[in-house]
């Protein structure tokens, strides 16, 4: 059945290779799968930690930290350099085929790996596979964006490449759907035993389909022309970063565009989720469902802003997105917090569900866990878990040592929360929709893959990826509050806006159209 | 406009230096063997400082180019 599907699809692709939509489809599906592969590791981080990186073992806990930070910060930019160079020497098509195979193979192998309990070397292999995922992701995006842009006619690059830009959001969306479907289809025991492996194993089929599709594609016309004329670069790294004129543009792309784009992207798509779950204490299913709805509504705007950038310019749209983010972040996040804040609600009923003592045999102290359910007049519900020290209670100190709040909001709040998240994602679409076309147009064909990949992955992987870390750093500083973590993305976006508005040109490179 | 671009070049170089000093200082203050957060572990800081230092040097280089008028129209 699968073979028939392959044949039909490849026959279709063969007939329509010149069609820009088949180019976009082949590139986007592969890139979407790579994002899916990259995200499922993050989405399943808790169970992966349990299976491969038990926190009780210092070595595996260290490897887990390395897997989290090294994959995004070091390996992604390195992948951009490695595969960028390859793409400018060998060609776009075979390079982004290779990244797809590495990503899919790594993901599949993670799904096959025996757990730490039965194979003590497993954490090292998982770390290696995660690093390979980061390496492949570093090489994929630049290839896909360059490939589509080099097929796209002048005046439509923003529109056509914006389809590639939807893949990061859709990849996240698909990964969540697959994980939720697997969770709901299996019992909790089966999921914990083997079911968590299915999203990883599924990747190999998706990748196989994508590889077959991509194999039928031809090399980009601009690169083919360069190659036939013998004008390809022999040393893209030297020409990209050792050549002053090009290095100036690489720095400008990073500090005047991708740096701000990266933090706005990360804050809108990921920090908002963490903020709702951890800072506001919103119930997990409600959070993920409402974010999912906002993503569905906002995703078409990647294409709309990509299209618009062909009409009015990339710079104005991207910088407007950054400026709006800087201005609106605090009011939006404050609104989200206020909606969830129980201080703004009137209590209707309150029930103590359980009150039990734990650690009863501990000689020094025991803990009392009290769980209460509070219903408010607006139908929102709060599940409050308070943990008290028995010794302190005996000494009449009634302050809990730990408090956990999970609020389930009334459905009447749905569209207000969805609307606020939608605005956050709208800023993402403004900065991210036109960025591929912007980067492609900044650099000449012969070193384009290398030159555009590095600023993109530093902007997104490093500046964007640092959002949770720096936000935590600011939040634990004296005098900070629940909104203080936003100073980092706001500060970076503001600096990027100033650099962009002063130094970026509104004109694009138009001399190398196919 | 070109004068503003040049003057701001000095600011970008200063920001680059300040960013490195801030990160090293924050690492010294927050690394804590008893802490449970990522900011208390040495490894994230080592990775971030190693990867961020060349980026900050890139910002300084950008500032230098701006100061020299390389981004004038």
Characterise the protein shown here.
The complex is a heterodimer of chains A (514) and B (73). Chain A has 514 residues and is α+β, with helices and mostly antiparallel strands. Helix content of chain A is 70%, strand content 7%. Chain A contains 21 helices and four strands. Chain A has a four-stranded antiparallel β-sheet. In chain A, a hairpin with a 4-residue loop joins strand 2 and strand 3. Chain A is globular and about 85 Å long. The two termini of chain A are 39 Å apart. Chain B is mainly alpha-helical and 73 residues long. In chain B, 75% of the residues lie in helices and 0% in strands.
Question: Which terms would index this structure?
Answer:
heterodimer, A: 514 residues, alpha+beta, four-stranded antiparallel sheet, 21 helices, globular, B: 73 residues, mainly alpha, 2 helices, 0% strand, elongated
Give a short overview.
The complex is a heterodimer of chains A (514) and B (73). Chain A has 21 helices and four strands. Chain A has 514 residues and is of the alpha+beta class.
Output the helix-strand order of chain A: HHHHHHHHHHHHHHHEEEHEHHHHH
For the termini of chain A, the CA-CA separation is 39 Å
Report mean pLDDT of chain A, rounded to a whole number. Answer: 87
Give me the secondary-structure category of chain B: mainly alpha
Strand content of chain A: 5-15%
């Amino acid at each position: 059945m699968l073979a028939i599907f392959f044949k039909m699809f490849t026959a279709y692709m063969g007939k329509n290779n010149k069609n820009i939509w088949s180019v976009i489809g082949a590139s986007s599906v592969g890139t979407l799968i790579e994002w899916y592969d990259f995200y499922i590791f993050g989405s399943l981080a808790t169970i992966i930690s349990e299976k491969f990186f038990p926190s009780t073992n210092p070595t595996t806990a260290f490897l887990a930290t390395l897997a989290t930070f090294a994959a995004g910060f070091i390996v992604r930019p390195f992948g951009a350099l490695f595969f960028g160079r390859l793409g400018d020497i060998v060609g776009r098509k075979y390079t982004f085929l290779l990244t797809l195979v590495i990503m899919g193979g790594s993901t599949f192998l993670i799904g096959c790996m025996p757990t730490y309990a039965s194979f003590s070397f497993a954490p090292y292999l998982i770390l290696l596979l995660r690093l390979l995922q980061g390496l492949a992701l570093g090489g994929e995006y630049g290839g896909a964006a360059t490939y589509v842009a080099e097929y796209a006619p002048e005046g439509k690059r923003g529109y056509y490449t914006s389809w590639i830009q939807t893949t990061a959001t859709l990849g996240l969306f698909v990964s969540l759907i697959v994980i939720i479907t697997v969770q709901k289809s299996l019992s909790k025991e089966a999921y914990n035993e083997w079911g968590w492996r299915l999203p990883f194993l599924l990747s190999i089929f998706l990748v196989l389909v994508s590889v077959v599709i991509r194999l039928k594609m031809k090399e980009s016309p601009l690169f083919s022309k360069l190659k036939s004329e013998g004008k390809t670069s022999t040393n893209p790294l030297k020409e990209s970063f050792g050549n002053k004129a090009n290095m100036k543009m690489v720095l400008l792309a990073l500090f005047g565009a991708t740096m701000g784009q990266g933090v706005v992207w990360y804050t809108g798509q990921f920090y908002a989720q963490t903020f709702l779950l951890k800072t506001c204490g919103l119930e997990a299913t409600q959070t993920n469902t409402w974010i999912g709805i906002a993503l569905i509504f906002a995703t078409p705007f990647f294409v709309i802003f990509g299209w618009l950038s062909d009409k009015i310019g990339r710079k104005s749209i991207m910088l407007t997105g950054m400026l709006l983010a800087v201005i609106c972040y605090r009011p939006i996040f404050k609104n989200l917090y206020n909606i969830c804040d129980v201080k703004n609600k009137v209590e209707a009923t309150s029930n103590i569900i359980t009150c039990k003592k734990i650690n009863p045999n501990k000689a020094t102290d025991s803990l009392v866990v009290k769980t209460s359910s509070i219903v408010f007049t607006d139908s929102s519900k709060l599940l409050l878990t308070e943990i008290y020290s028995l010794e302190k209670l005996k000494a009449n100190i009634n302050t809990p040592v730990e408090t956990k709040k999970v609020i389930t909001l009334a459905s009447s709040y749905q569209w207000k929360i969805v609307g606020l998240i939608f605005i956050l994602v709208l800023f993402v679409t403004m900065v991210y929709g036109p960025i591929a076309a912007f980067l492609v147009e900044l650099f000449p064909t012969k070193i384009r893959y290398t030159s555009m990949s590095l600023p993109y992955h530093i902007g997104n992987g490093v500046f964007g990826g640092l959002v949770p870390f720096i936000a935590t750093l600011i939040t634990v500083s004296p005098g900070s509050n629940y909104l203080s973590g936003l100073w980092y993305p706001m500060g970076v976006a503001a600096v990027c806006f100033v650099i962009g508005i002063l130094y970026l040109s509104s004109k694009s490179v138009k001399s190398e159209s196919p | 406009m070109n004068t503003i671009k040049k003057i701001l070049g000095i600011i970008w170089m200063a920001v680059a230096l300040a960013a490195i000093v801030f990160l090293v200082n924050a690492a010294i203050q927050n690394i804590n063997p008893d802490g449970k957060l990522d900011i208390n572990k040495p490894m994230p800081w080592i990775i971030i400082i190693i990867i961020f230092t060349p980026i900050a040097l890139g910002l300084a280089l950008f500032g230098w180019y701006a100061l020299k008028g390389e981004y004038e129209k």
